[in-house]
Write a sequence for this structure.
């Protein structure tokens, strides 16, 4: 009898709990210790000497953008605030100057108490998982030191006409690239990095998890990424920036189930301080922390930090993410959602079309992402040999190498000049879709000996019976002293078209293989009022409004 | 070649429609087709959205003492397999409620001692009582930590009820050099229903569960001591990690 009564009592307690949860669901998370950012109110009275704090590159970047060297964002966090926080909650694991915040572990109760302090502006919980953008891609094959696919190795340079940079002596020299990744094991011994190590071009490194300089002990995802930016095999480049300088930051740890954005944030400030021109981040945050509708470039702390870094002249290049096959996500991850981040999607080899795993756009607020695309399947240097990994992780460093060469070629450009020029050079530009962005950046665009012209490559005409017909032009005429943009797109033999809605957003987009001059016939009934049809083929884009 | 892996279901439909509309254009081979219309509809189904459901597999072992020495069991060999389908209704980022349908197969192995009373005093080489139970449970969930569309860390508390739809008694004995298996059903001593409370702690797909049976396993008329009431085990959710 007692047992039955106890059971009924428990049922009643559960019902009471339900009533409580119904009316108290706006309350804070209970209990357990978790990561929190404690934001401080001010930086009054702190001392800051930019010449002592920054590398000369960082000073130069700021001056080239006309920025004040005494930006309060760069000022240190007040020591007395940190001392008080340490006495109340223990030593912070990360302190962010830009956010004027410190990361500590607290219970929710302690967080509420901290929020009442005069010098605390707000306390927000953070707990998330960072996904290297190759984690869910195809398995990596280790193939010893024999090149597993020489056609692929050649194409990972040539699909961006990257050989033109090398031919003109541009290899990213004097450009400093920071790589945020999960570990760089094998870099010191692997022959693909002998030229970098031998010339002392790893300028700095930091393991943000272990607080040590050595980043060569665990994880080889970063090793592969570094090789795709600047590795060389028997004189053959694996990436374009074989002459660049590198900052290696270990910001991610594969084996942890839950880790936090704090290391990424700390690494951005570290890279800025040490004079990085470019940051390559083959990492992104997804569903563990966010909903896809929050991929608006404003919500996540890392997106906000990316904006600050861009405003200080750093070009941030981020992998789009490998959620393309994930029906519940599909779109780009953060910080690839930020508009000041050059987001790179992955292409399959040899089709040069979006790889099925590559995250697509648009962002939650309807902006174009990814910005550009590059091969997602590459020959890379693994821990023990060569590998052929897949993922947007490897498309991003290919473009980082491209950007380094372009910046070396145009040293007076700002980060956003480089960003826009990369877009402008790309195969589809000014056309874009949410699978490929504006296409593949092309070095030939900058290095062609003759002025670049865009000649019509197709005609849109009435096909009869309420249809539109698109017909490819054969051998369009051009002046001998001109470079037809179509010729630098020789690897791409697809026709792209899209239907834009009245609000200028893409409603539908298509890629069609070209195997006949009469390439496409479209029924007019699908074009309502206010809609536009845009068609692109080999550098030429044409539009029809309805 | 058209790479079929590229297409989502929506893509297939669009591709089909495109081919119909386009008529006989001989050069047209659509490789990518995406339709974004309707993509901005609010989503209500997901791990941390309004509705979510998934199946799970679990195994639990009896724990705790029996009512008296007459109901002692082999703990390691007395266990329950569960397969269930769980529904979760999100109230907030912290709180959810849910229900689940499940099928349990619970096997009790009485120890063959001189004190043995369940299901009877007769001793066998080995013996087991197997309960097959479709059940229904109801739970409240507290989630810990900020997260996106993700199950995350949680604590569940709830109650369950199950129908002992099929109970059998199986014994094995060695008789004159032969192993003899005796299987009985239709006994009059098992209770018709079982109920109790449950608790779970979990991280995403991995769950540790405990349940406590409040009801009697045997009818009062049988006057049998109760097996241990506590079960502890783990579950594996079949949803994506």
């Amino acid at each position: 009898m007692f047992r039955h009564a106890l059971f009924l009592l428990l049922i009643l307690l559960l019902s009471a709990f339900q009533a409580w949860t119904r009316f108290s669901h706006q309350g804070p998370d209970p209990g357990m210790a978790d990561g929190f950012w404690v934001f401080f109110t001010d930086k009054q009275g702190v001392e800051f000497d930019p010449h002592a704090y920054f590398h000369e590159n960082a000073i130069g970047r700021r001056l080239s953008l006309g920025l004040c060297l005494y930006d309060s964002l760069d000022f240190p966090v007040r020591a007395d605030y940190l001392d008080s926080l340490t006495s109340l909650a223990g030593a912070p694991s990360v302190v962010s100057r830009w956010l004027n915040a410190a990361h500590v572990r607290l219970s929710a109760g302690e967080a509420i108490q901290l929020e009442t302090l005069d010098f605390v502006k707000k306390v927000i919980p953070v707990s998330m998982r960072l996904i290297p953008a190759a984690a869910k891609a195809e398995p990596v094959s280790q193939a010893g030191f024999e090149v597993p696919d020489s056609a692929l190795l050649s194409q990972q340079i040539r699909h961006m006409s990257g050989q033109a940079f090398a031919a003109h002596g541009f290899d990213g020299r004097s450009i400093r690239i920071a790589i945020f990744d999960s570990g760089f094991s094998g870099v010191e011994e692997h022959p693909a990095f002998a030229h970098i190590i031998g010339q002392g071009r790893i300028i700095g490194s930091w393991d943000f998890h272990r607080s040590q300089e050595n980043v060569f002990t665990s994880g080889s995802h970063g090793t592969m990424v570094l090789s795709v930016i600047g590795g060389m095999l028997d004189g053959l480049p694996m990436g374009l920036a074989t002459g660049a300088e590198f900052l290696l930051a270990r910001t991610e740890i594969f084996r942890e189930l839950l880790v936090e954005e704090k290391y990424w944030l700390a690494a951005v400030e570290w890279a800025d301080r040490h004079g990085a021109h470019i940051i390559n981040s083959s990492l992104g945050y997804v569903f563990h922390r966010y909903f896809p509708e929050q991929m608006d470039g404003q919500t996540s702390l890392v997106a906000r930090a990316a904006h600050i870094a861009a405003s200080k002249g750093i070009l941030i290049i981020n992998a789009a993410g490998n959620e393309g096959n994930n029906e519940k996500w599909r779109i780009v991850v953060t910080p690839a959602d930020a508009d000041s981040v050059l987001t790179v999607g992955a292409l399959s080899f040899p089709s040069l079309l979006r790889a099925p795993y590559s995250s697509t756009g648009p962002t939650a607020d309807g902006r174009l992402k990814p910005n550009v695309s590059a091969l997602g399947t590459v020959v890379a240097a693994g821990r023990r040999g060569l590998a052929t990994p897949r993922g947007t992780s490897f498309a991003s460093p290919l473009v980082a190498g491209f950007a380094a060469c372009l910046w070396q070629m145009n040293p007076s450009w700002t980060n956003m000049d480089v960003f826009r020029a990369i877009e402008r050079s790309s195969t589809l530009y000014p056309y874009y879709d949410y699978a490929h962005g504006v296409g593949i950046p092309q070095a030939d665009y900058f290095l062609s000996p003759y002025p670049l012209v865009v000649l019509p490559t197709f005609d849109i005409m009435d096909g009869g019976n309420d249809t539109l017909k698109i017909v490819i032009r054969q051998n369009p005429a051009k002046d001998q002293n001109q470079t037809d943009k179509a010729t630098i797109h020789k690897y791409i033999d697809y026709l792209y078209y899209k239907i834009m809605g009245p609000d200028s957003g893409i409603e539908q987009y298509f890629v069609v293989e070209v195997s006949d001059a009469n390439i496409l016939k479209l029924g007019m009934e699908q074009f309502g009022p206010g809609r536009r049809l845009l068609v692109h083929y080999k550098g030429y884009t044409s539009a029809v409004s309805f | 070649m058209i790479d079929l892996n590229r297409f989502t279901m929506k893509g297939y439909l669009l591709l089909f429609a495109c081919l119909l509309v386009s008529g006989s254009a001989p050069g047209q081979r659509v490789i990518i087709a995406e339709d974004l219309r309707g993509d901005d509809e609010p989503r209500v189904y997901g791990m941390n959205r309004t509705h979510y459901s998934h199946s799970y597999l679990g195994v639990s072992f009896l724990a705790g003492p029996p009512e008296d020495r007459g109901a002692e069991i082999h703990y390691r060999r007395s266990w329950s397999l569960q397969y269930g389908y769980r529904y979760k209704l999100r109230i907030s980022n912290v709180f959810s409620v849910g229900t689940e349908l499940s099928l349990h197969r619970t096997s009790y192995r009485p120890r063959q001692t001189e004190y043995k009373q369940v299901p009877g005093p007769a001793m066998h080489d080995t013996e087991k009582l197997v309960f097959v139970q479709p059940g229904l449970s109801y739970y409240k969930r507290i989630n810990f930590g900020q997260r996106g569309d993700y199950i995350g860390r949680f604590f569940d508390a709830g109650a369950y009820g199950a129908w002992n739809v099929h109970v059998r008694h199986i014994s094995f004995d060695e008789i004159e050099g032969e192993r003899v298996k005796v299987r009985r059903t239709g006994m009059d001593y098992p209770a018709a229903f079982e109920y109790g409370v449950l608790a779970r702690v979990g991280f995403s797909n991995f769950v540790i569960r405990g349940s406590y049976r409040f009801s009697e396993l045997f009818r009062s008329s049988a006057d049998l001591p109760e097996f241990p009431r506590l079960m502890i085990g783990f579950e594996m959710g079949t949803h994506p990690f």
User: Anything to note?
Assistant: The two ends of chain B are 33 Å apart (CA to CA). Chain B touches chain A through 56 residues (CB under 8 Å). The helical segments of chain B are 9-22.
